[in-house]
């Protein structure tokens, strides 16, 4: 068994450090005791972490982002499952064009989509609704859910499904007992990526969000445009730590390779 050369290990260590350096700087800045962003700082303090709880707008925006991401990701996955099954199991004219249409939001700049949605909502009188904001997020994150779900369906043997049907199982029973468990890793991975993309979306959301539907990224963007204190850095540090803990727990419980890749 070959071992990695010392140069390769050093290169990978510096590469990982280069990737994580911005996150480490944000975390370090969040502990400053000063009223402005400074590194190095004159002292260490938790004042800006306590300030997060005092800013009710961030708490409300976090709850809005979490609920919006939950609803949008679940709706995107619910649409991605039948779409993936139809594209993978059937051959029909226009199949490739339909696949490209479903994945097209990946190729359109989000600022263009935001302006288009803003214009459409203003003309139709739909602005200000959580439901319509959820719809825009579903359109944006649907390709992420579809790609992983489609990857889990493509190449999947249909022998068990056909055997169940030949024994008299109803279609919904076949889907619930056989098909869904087989594609569940791809579905779960698609839901996770869709949730992350929805929670983090700011470029398009800033055009269609209203004061009643302000998400956390939009609130953070608005705050840093008016203030130079490290409050947003502290909030970012909390999100970084929370994400790291979530990924660690998920890896311990079910394994990230099974959720994201689909390995047994």
How are the secondary structure elements laid out?
Elements: H1 6-29, H2 47-54, H3 56-89, H4 95-103, H5 110-124, H6 130-153, H7 159-166, H8 171-200, H9 205-208, H10 216-224, H11 231-253, H12 256-261
Helix pairs in contact: 1-11, 2-11, 3-6, 3-8, 3-10, 6-8, 7-8
Write up this protein.
- This protein is mostly helical.
- The protein has one domain (6-261): MetI-like fold (Orthogonal Bundle).
- 73% of the residues lie in helices and 0% in strands.
- The longest helix is centred in the first third of the chain and has 34 residues, at 56-89.
Strand content: under 5%
Helix-and-strand structural type: mainly alpha
The ordered H/E elements are HHHHHHHHHHHH
Q: What is the total tally of β strands?
A: 0
CATH H-level homologous superfamily name = MetI-like
Mean pLDDT level: 83
CATH class reads Mainly Alpha
What tags apply to this protein structure?
MetI-like fold, 73% helix, single chain, 264 residues, mainly alpha, 12 helices
Describe the structure in brief.
With 264 residues, the protein is an all-alpha fold.
């Amino acid at each position: 068994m070959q071992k990695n050369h010392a140069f390769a290990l050093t290169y990978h260590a510096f590469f990982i450090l280069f990737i994580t350096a911005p996150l480490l700087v944000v975390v370090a800045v969040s502990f400053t005791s000063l009223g402005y962003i400074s590194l190095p700082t004159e002292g260490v303090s938790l004042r800006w972490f306590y300030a997060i709880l005092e800013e009710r707008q961030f708490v409300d925006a976090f709850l809005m982002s979490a609920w919006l991401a939950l609803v949008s990701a679940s709706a995107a996955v619910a649409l991605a499952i039948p779409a993936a099954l139809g594209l993978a199991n059937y051959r029909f004219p226009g199949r490739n064009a339909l696949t490209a249409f479903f994945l097209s939001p990946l190729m359109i700049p989000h600022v263009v989509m935001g302006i288009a949605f803003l214009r459409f909502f203003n003309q139709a009188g739909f602005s200000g609704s959580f439901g319509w904001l959820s719809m825009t997020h579903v359109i944006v994150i649907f390709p992420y859910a579809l790609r992983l779900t489609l990857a889990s369906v493509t190449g999947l043997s249909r022998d068990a499904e056909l055997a169940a049907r030949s024994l008299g199982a109803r279609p919904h029973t076949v889907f619930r007992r056989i098909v869904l468990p087989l594609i569940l890793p791809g579905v779960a991975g698609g839901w996770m990526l869709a949730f992350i993309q929805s929670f983090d979306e700011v470029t398009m959301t800033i055009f269609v969000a209203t004061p009643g539907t302000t998400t956390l990224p939009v609130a953070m963007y608005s705050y840093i445009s008016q203030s130079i204190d490290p409050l947003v850095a502290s909030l970012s540090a909390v999100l970084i730590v929370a994400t790291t803990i979530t990924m660690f727990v998920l890896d311990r419980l079910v394994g990230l390779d099974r959720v994201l890749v689909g390995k047994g």
